[in-house]
UniProtKB/TrEMBL annotation:
Domain of life: Bacteria
Pfam (any one): SNase
Keyword Hydrolase: yes
Protein name, as recorded: ParB family protein
GO MF annotation list: endonuclease activity; hydrolase activity
Keywords: Endonuclease, Hydrolase, Nuclease
Record InterPro entries: SNase_OB-fold_sf (IPR035437), Staphylococal_nuclease_OB-fold (IPR016071)
Domain TNase-like: 49-170
Annotated source species: Flavobacterium beibuense
CDD domains in the record: SNc (cd00175)
């Protein structure tokens, strides 16, 4: 009789332990039966060829975070380079970009590529008309990359230089890629 009682206690203990594990893993760990379907993750860059989202932060003149499908996407403005924050006109470029798009809904038109830091490369538009990339170059707050095939950026940069706008007021402005080389060891 005593053996049967001990066996029942062992079975009951094992059953309780099994139920405890079940409860922990199914209900607590995985949010169990009440788990709601989450928004789909972006799995490829083709979905990001063109999308609309809200600018939730401006890191510097040419880098933003855009909220898209509940996830912050890091965006790097394509074909331009703004002065770094520690450079002359770096803070102005960030402030200007911030005034143009922070908290606003923007359309990102990307080429499907990413830079070495994983940021989406693209053009950013406010109200589908104001091109942030072009606006920064026009105001003398960004360089156009020499490899860029965008002729309008080339023309805007030329006009900004002639009008001594922004960074072009300096006699010999140092572009950001050279400035980064000079300051990378510091």
């Amino acid at each position: 009789m005593r053996k049967k009682s001990n066996r029942n206690k062992t079975k009951l203990g094992s059953l309780l332990l099994l139920l405890a594990f079940f409860f922990y893993f199914v209900v607590v760990k995985n949010n169990g039966f009440t788990k709601q379907e989450s928004k789909p993750e972006i799995t490829n860059d083709t979905e990001l060829a063109q999308f609309t989202g809200k600018v939730v932060s401006v890191s510097d003149g040419d880098t933003f975070k855009v909220l898209y499908k509940g996830k912050k996407q890091r965006i790097r403005l394509m074909d331009i380079d703004c002065p770094e924050t520690g450079q002359p006109f770096g803070k102005e470029a960030k402030q200007y970009a911030n005034s143009l798009c922070y908290g606003k809904t923007v359309t990102v038109k990307a080429d499907g590529g990413r830079d070495q830091y994983g940021r989406i490369l693209g053009y950013v538009y406010v109200n589908d008309t104001l091109n942030i990339n072009a606006q920064l170059v026009k105001e003398g707050l960004a360089w156009r990359y020499k490899y860029s095939e965008n002729e309008s950026l080339k023309e805007l940069e030329s006009q900004a230089k002639k009008q001594h706008k922004g960074l072009w007021v300096q006699q010999d402005p140092i572009n950001p890629w050279e400035w980064r080389k000079q300051h990378s060891g510091k």
